Amino acid sequence: MHRYRSHTCGMLREAQIGETVRISGWVHRVRDHGGVLFIDLRDHYGLTQVVADPDSPSFKTAETVRSEWVIRVDGKVRRRPGGTENPDLPTGQVEVYANEIEALGPAAELPMPVFGDQEYPEDIRLRYRFLDLRRDKPHANIMKRGQIVDSIRRRMKEQGFFEFQTPILTASSPEGARDYLVPSRIHPGKFYALPQAPQQFKQLIMIAGFDRYFQIAPCFRDEDARADRSPGEFYQLDIEMSFVTQEDVFGAVEPVLRGVFEEFAEGKRVTEKFPMIPYADAMRDYGTDKPDLRNPIKMQNVTEAFRGSGFKIFAGMIEKDPKVEVWAIPARGGGNRAFCDRMNAWAQGEGQPGLGYIFWREGEEGGAGPLAKNIGPERTKQIADQLELGVGDAAFFIAGQPDKFVKFAGPARTRVGEELNLVDKDQFAFCWIVDFPMFEWSEEEKKIDFSHNPFSMPNMSAEDFLKLDPADKDRILAIKAFQYDIVCNGIELSSGAIRNHRPDIMKKAFAIAGYGEDVLESKFGGMLRALTYGAPPHGGIAPGIDRIVMLLCGEENLREVVLFPMNQRAEDLLMGAPSEVTQKQLKELHIRLALPDK
Q: 76 exposed, middle or buried (CB, 10 Å; 0-12, 13-18, 19+)?
């Protein structure tokens, strides 16, 4: 027999009854039932019940074992007594009567128990992550992550993509987040950088003549943590394709994502065909470029209903400033004063003066609430007809310049949907956000600048773009780019673009944004040179692996689906990183520390 096991703890069934077996694993818990000891023994594959009574030669050893000890058990498989079967456990029809128990790895007193699914402070979970990962849910999340990555790889290869590996040590990038720098020992005073993404390399792969690239790529960014972004490092499904239009990218990527989500959705619906929503429409309808389409609410412009009305606050704003609009958030089923007052109080808690509302109730002409009384029944009916609302419904109103109030309007729409249980959580709702503006006006610098990605192709003919007058502000701000995002359930999975593969268009784009050719050459000279030697039209995208897994595991924090995550301060509490190094190491790297005063 094998030194440690003839079977795993998830293998034993009724077919093995009567056999002598050897299993090894962790003591999940010990139960003493009137002098008979029941040990739940756990390994990666499952859990088996082990029994030791005073007649067993292993009984004395069984009395000493504690939770999370690693033990080996030799014994005979037998059927569990009637009424004690566990139908929720694959091995629940049998148990092992222990003849011999060997302690392979005794465990000290635990800083956190593994049995059960209690919540524990994050610092304890991260410091003892190896214990945390023994718990059912984190263990299952990590296993599902591996299955999801396998599924993605298979689907990408079926789509004709080939996997390449790009460098980890590279040059510092002047754009995006902060780099993690790596000092060079043999080149004093010079530094490598860990890649924020393989962006330039994957474009160079296309310029080198390869056609369809993908990689499960590690990315490194020295930025603050968020619930949907890990500090330090993360993984993305990095994709690039040659000789493609935007629609070709959608046609290749959408089946992969839809297929993966359908495979792991556990009964939830998945969008069959991802709708394409222009950026301007997303901001207008949902107040965000990351709309959660599970929420059916669409905001609408109701400015005309308030123009010249008796509600002087809104009417005065509209008359004074032509940029002012009034947006309505329809709230079906929210037609009662208690809910409306609750939303108004929430808005005040968000730093707003309040949230105007109208609600409709039985037996009342027009609507109810202060706004309804000020604008009168005719205008109230106009709003109800436009929003398709009736008795039992409500509407909330926000006034001002949309580009200034939209950051409040979006969360208000979300809040209404959640409070009224309008959000259909039994689905994964995908969409593409397209037609991002290529340029924006920087109020701070009083100049035109790039709005999203400086290396995207403008959505207009090359000839027309090259003829643009940089002083024609209105026309330039109206230019859209071939840039796109994938959004699922209000979470941005990735951004992508059709790349600017022509040096003349790139120079023109940077000139419009106020950057001379010297800036382009100094910061992006390598890419610019590569493009001058025959670059194919190409584009790509990079969905975040961690975010995909987070959604499919039903988690709200990325740290629940990452093996060894850092905390919010980018610290690895388990391994003690970042850590101090020796003077010898610093000397070899020609580095002298200039630490801030404490």
A: middle
Q: Which of 433, 405, 407 is nearest to 293 (CA)?
A: 433
How far apart are the C-alpha atoms of 410 and 415, rounded to whole Å? 9
User: pLDDT tens across 438-462, in order?
Assistant: 999 887 878 888 887 788 999 999 9
CA pair distance 413, 189, nearest whole angstrom: 52
Which of 416, 411, 391, 423 shows the shortest CA–CA distance to 340? 416
Residues 6 or more apart whose Cβ sits within 8 Å of residue 86:
49, 80, 92
pLDDT at 206 over 90: yes
pTM for this model (two decimals):
0.92
Q: Is the Cβ–Cβ distance between 29 and 40 less than 8 Å?
A: yes
Within 352-502, residue ranges assigned H as helices are 370-387, 402-419, 462-466, 473-477
Q: Please name which of 311, 400, 325, 392 lies closest in space to residue 359, comparing C-alpha atoms.
A: 392
Name, in order, each residue with C-beta under 8 angstroms of 12's C-beta and a sequence gap of 6 or more: 21, 23, 48, 77, 91, 94, 96
Q: How far apart are CA 163 and CA 238, in angstroms?
A: 10
Cis-peptide into 578, omega within 30 deg: yes
Q: Are 279 and 433 in contact (CB under 8 A)?
A: yes
- Pairing mode of beta strands 276-278, 430-434: parallel
pLDDT category at 176 given cuts 50, 70, 90 is: low
The answer to whether residues 14 and 94 touch, using CB atoms and an 8 Å cutoff, is yes
Contact 38, 59 (CB under 8 A): no
